[in-house]
Amino acid sequence: MKLHEMTADELGERLASGEVSAVEVTEAHFARIDEVEESVGAFLTLTRDSALEQARQVDDRRGGGEDPGPLAGVPIAIKDVLCTRGIPTTCGSKMIESFRPPYDATTVRLCRDAGMPMVGKTNMDEFAMGSSTENSAFKVTRNPWDLDRVPGGSSGGSAAAVAAGEAPVALGSDTGGSIRQPASLCGLSGLKPTYGRVSRYGLVAYASSLDQVGPLAKNVRDCALVMNVLAGRDHRDATSADVEAPDYVTALTGDVSGLRAGVPGELMGEGIDPAVKTTIEAAIGELEELGMAVEQVTMPHVDFSLPVYYLIATAEAASNLARFDGVRYGHRTEEPVDDVYDLFAQSRAEGFGPEVRLRIMLGTYALSAGYYEAYYGQAQKVRTLIKQDFDAAFEDHDVLLSPTSPTVAFGIGEKADDPLQMKLADICTIPVNLAGIPALNVPCGMADGMPVGLQIMGRPFAEDTIMRVGDAYQRATDWHTRRAEL
Ligand code: GLN
């Protein structure tokens, strides 16, 4: 097997034994990037020199007898929504095309401290708004399994990079599905942690009550390895939780007998492609064979998730994106302007793409005087009901199961003019963000020649349990070992 085909775990073992050096591993991934990046288009920025410098430092530390940790020398790709010191951080937007952050996001710093060379910054839907990466202001990213299809989004660049072998693991962010859905569409394992489990310091905010950072990888074990690096309290993020993080790797015991799983009927009904549904049912059957007890559950309020999300997420986005006015932050128009308000309006009209403008307008409306209670206030109340549905389901069940995406990857351009269809791509993932719980995607079959993903949802801070289930599934099946042929 070639180095770029290996998992982070396999690379880590070979690095620790001295069989390969961090420089060799990093060079192998850049060789792969040279080979395939032109057709995949996963990256907005490549950081070859600094990655090799990081790799050399890891090799020096090992040479000096130090144990720099299990991921030292394993390269990583970072979604362009996470601040990287001195390195462009564009969020896929012209608005902050020239931004060079003066600091690293906490998650970026943790990966650096773990000795992971950063290969580059990955493409994304502008400000993480989208499900196909087609909303990037800069380029199209293609699905390595079929270059005419989307990789999903908004972390589509991170997913495509890992699926193409350009990086063994990547970081993404997930507000309504942006780690899990691209992981599903590209045949990867991807984890959205519990709200508060991972620091959001240095993550450019989309919807602050929903955003989380997490890993995309070739298997669940690699997700657990990266979570051992990321999880924990950060005094720089007031929403990060003061909850002890377990060792996620030793939690992967392979034993799931006696665990109880619920399957919400609301996430298996209308809108789920029949071929996806059949595949998910087979995967659930496999988990039963591994000793899990499975039963149907109902979650009556989950059907309202999409409208609730598009009020809350747009309202929070409108507030968060207000700072990009061409004066304090962001692109400033060079056209003649009448006054400061005209300067704001012109700069924002030029800097933001159409989807972002649409959402700012929706969110501003939902928050406006006289409508706040009717829209935002009401949405918050229904959000509580959705959360209570999950609390009730988790009283008798350790995990909940559903498809991650209702369809396999769709064609580039296919849904670009149909905003409702695009938003329906997230019907199974959005409820998870509203409830703040963790969820994992694992590949569980193929339909129409493309990967299908199973979503495993868990109680707050039960990342160890859902990864144990996903890992047990991967010990019994080989879907996660299939690779896109490029
Ligand atoms: N597709 C959803 C949206 O457009 C979710 C995106 C995300 O999780 N960042 O808002």
Architecture blueprint of SSEs:
Elements: H1 8-17, H2 22-40, E1 43-46, H3 48-63, E2 76-79, H4 106-113, E3 118-122, H5 156-163, E4 169-174, H6 180-185, E5 189-192, E6 212-217, H7 220-230, E7 260-264, H8 274-289, E8 293-297, H9 305-320, H10 340-351, H11 354-367, H12 373-396, E9 399-403, H13 419-424, H14 430-435, E10 439-447, E11 450-458, H15 463-476
Structure description:
38% of the residues lie in helices and 13% in strands. By secondary structure, the chain is of the alpha/beta class. The chain has one domain: Amidase signature (AS) domain (Amidase signature (AS) enzymes, Alpha-Beta Complex), CATH 3.90.1300. It has an eleven-stranded mixed β-sheet, sandwiched between helices. Helix 8 links the parallel strand 7 and strand 8. Helix 2 runs antiparallel to helix 3, helix 9 packs across helix 11 and helix 9 packs across helix 12. The longest helix has 24 residues. It is globular, with a radius of gyration of 21 Å. The model has no long low-confidence stretch (mean pLDDT 97). It binds glutamine. The site of glutamine (GLN) has 13 residues, from loops.
Task: Give a summary of the structure in a few sentences.
The protein is an alpha/beta fold and 486 residues long. The chain has helices at residues 8-17, 22-40, 48-63, 106-113, 156-163, 180-185, 220-230, 274-289, 305-320, 340-351, 354-367, 373-396, 419-424, 430-435, 463-476, and strands spanning 43-46, 76-79, 118-122, 169-174, 189-192, 212-217, 260-264, 293-297, 399-403, 439-447, 450-458. It has an 11-stranded mixed β-sheet with strand order 1-3-2-4-6-5-10-11-9-7-8, with helices on both faces.
